[in-house]
Amino acid sequence: MELLGVGVGQLLALFGAAAVVTVALYLLELRRRRVRVPFVALWTQASSQTQATRLFSKLRHVLSLLLALAIVAALTLALGDPRATLRGDASQARLLLIDTSVSMGAVDAGKPRMETALEQARAVIDELPKGQRLAIARADHSAIPITAATDDAEALTAALSDLRATSLPLHSGRLLTFARNVLGSATRPELVLVSDFVGASASELGKELARSGIALRSVVVGRAGRNVGVSAFAVRRYPLDKSHSQAFLELHNGGSQTERVELTLLSDGRAVEHETLELPGAGRMQRTYQALAGTDRRVEAVVRLADGAPDALAADDRAVALLPKRQRTRVLAVTEGNLYLEAALLLDEYLDVDTLAPAQYRGADGYDVVIFDRFVPSTAPRVPGVYLAPQAPGAFPLVVAGELSAPYFVAVNRSDPLLRFTALEDVNISRALKLQPAPGDQVLGRDASGAPLLLRGAREGVPFVALAFDVRDSDLPLRIAWPVLVVGMVDSLVSSEVGYLETHAVGDRVVVPVAGAAVDALVTSPDGRRTQVAALEGTVQVQSDRTGFLSVTTGGTEQLLAFNLRPETPRSVTPSVAASPAPPQPAAVSAPARWLGSQPPWLWLVSAVALVLIVEWFTYQRRWTL
Amino acid sequence: MLSAFRRRSPRAAVPTASDPFDDAFQQRLEYLALVSRRVFTGRQRAERRSKRTGSGVEFADYRQYAPGDDIRQIDWNVYGRLERLLVRLHEQEEDLSVHILLDCSGSMAFGQPSKLDYGKRLAAALAYVGLSHLDRVSVHAFSEGTSARLAPARGRHRIFQVFDFLRSLEARGGTHLAAGLSGFVVRNPRRGVAILISDLFDPRSFEDGINQLRFAKFETYVLHLVSDDDLAPQLHGEVDLQDAESGEVIRVTITPAVRERYLQRVAAYRERLERFCAAKRVPLFALNVGTPVDAAILHVLRRGGMVR
Hints:
The structure holds two protein chains of two kinds. Chain A is α/β, with parallel strands linked by helices. Chain A has ten helices and 34 strands. Helix content of chain A is 23%, strand content 31%. In chain A, helix 3 (54-79) runs antiparallel to helix 10 and helix 8 crosses helix 9. The longest helix of chain A is centred in the first third of the chain and has 26 residues, at 54-79. By secondary structure, chain B is α/β, with parallel strands linked by helices. Chain B has helices at 2-8, 23-30, 76-82, 115-132, 159-167, 177-187, 206-215, 228-231, 256-279, 293-303, and strands at 45-64, 86-94, 97-103, 136-143, 146-153, 193-198, 219-226, 237-243, 249-254, 284-288. The two termini of chain B are 20 Å apart. The interface between A and B is medium-sized, with 21 and 40 residues. Strand 2 of chain A pairs parallel with strand 8 (237-243) of chain B.
């Protein structure tokens, strides 16, 4: 008999401790209660018939102790999970490990690779000798046991039915550690690995396992195939032009032949970019797409073979990314009427503009930006401001030192984001105010005398932008630069939102902050599975083994996370050719000793204890027999 | 009714929780009186007839006038017809001696309330009834080796002495009815009603004790106190049973069978007591301590003919 559970030493220690406690309790039980009764003579008469059994009573106490110790011994032995020692090769410890990594999701000549792997696994189970126990586990980025070691072929086969390929790469190190932990102390351990060995070398694994005395039997599945995919994908919104975004992606070709591929960028299901490319064999290509219009929230990059042939691995044909949600900006324009200004503000659909006459101005609380057109309020606003041709006096943050006649831009800071996509050097201006900047103010454009025509600064932490001339005294409104400049000035004053949302790799554990009062969150995985996850200290932890968008919903608020393949994911689906040769089949063995049927012995031990306790309760506690 | 006495008695100024009676209970007892089936001689007038002739109301007999007789008792009608001086004799109403005998042995400490407490209340109630009707009431407490006695008293105001006496009693010692009651008989030659309150757990023989009273011509009543601890003890398993009086210990494994045999022994013991009392014409009242004392007094004793 061998023990599969707790070791012999620990069992003996456990039994010793439990026996000491049992004997102590037994001695305590022997101490009878002393009860005072009014007239013991009646009891003496009543119990006189049992006096003759006093010897049996003493014997019964000894038997009771022995029974208690037997129960303790049975329970302790059950902890050890005793199994009958098997003869011949049936005593061999065997672990069937099935690769469920991303490459196992490939389709080989129309047949899913995973299906082939499961057929091979069933063949391994079918060839199992009588009494031979086998444990099944799956491995991708980590190794997870599926069944305990058992010789029940039916249960083993049933356990295979739920196995699916994930989007995670195979992690050889974790596979090895798992195999050593399971088989390390077993008799003649053998690991049967059903895999395509993509990203892992069978010979290297065999060598590593051999150091631990574990034999590796490789069952290679899969075949070479054409595979193109997206290796990397990132999208960001332009800081100044949030209606456009920039995308970066890397494509790969896992096959050896150059492939023509069609790349499509989609945003919320709508195509925003399409291109046909040529990918060299076993090569990569990086592409950057500028000023993508129409991108909103969810962005996907999809690649497929241009000739319409099916791609071997679908998991890497699509990559996803998220753009930050655009916030609307509330703008107050204080003007007597400026068609050029109001028209420019209409160009940005994310601006909510209110117009007010200077006489009605009472403050700009509640707005994100206030624009003063030829007007300066008596008190400085507490929100960022744009001053167009400021008219002193008032709470203008600059000193007006006079007027400039026919100034023009001679120096423009083109590196400043505010002035991107603008050309101001040839703007004709009839007159402008001569502004004196304060230390710390940034002059963005000046005239020949050095007087600032466009500058920005901050007073008491509130930023502002000032244009020294009235656009109606210039030809700037006739130029493309004008609306760009207006929108740029507003955007530069609004606190910048997150411009880039990180994309997560499958298998990563992501901490998502949720509302503090939320106790749980509904997590919808990329494949549509819904799971209720408990929130802990205002966060939930999510993980995905599939690529795509994962949503976390709490109290009607949805947060999206984008999951793509891990960077180390192999791009080829071609199996390793260096598979270890199949070991000889174990010789047929005589029928092993089956220990009280197919149930594990500990179950019988515990059942026996329960039966004894029931009998003891009816016979001793209830005294039906005495 | 007793409140008037309490106001005059400093010791009873503040009623305590241990007082056997409340006012309502006392008022119900006011109308009860002890009934004796015989006529006893007494030293003072009371409400019962005696064999003595005297100053009572009921006519008894005539006798020849002798010098010194009260001439008011001469029946002049008879003298007119017969010319003989005859004196009318009347039955003199005498008091009744009521002796309350309370067992204070260790076995009386059992029960909820204890049999001793219950017996105290019964004794106090009976004493009050007797005192209210000008009977001479004495209370005797006995157990093996000890005895205490409250001297005969008359008048309901003496009830507080009875209470104080009963309060001082504790359950201890063994039960030896014959010895305890023979001592009572010797010290009390005046016959009367003897009310024995006991659980009758006498390892020797309860018959000898009751016979002591019978042989001394006391009109004997037996109030047999029982408790659920006696009738259906909640014991099981391995126990050492210690006798509350003798201290004797027996080791018993109480199984359902043993418990059943114990109940049979208890039933047999009570049956023996009933047979004895019926044969000797001694009224027997089995009272469970769970029965309220007033119910016992008002119903059980009335049904037994002790009160009317």
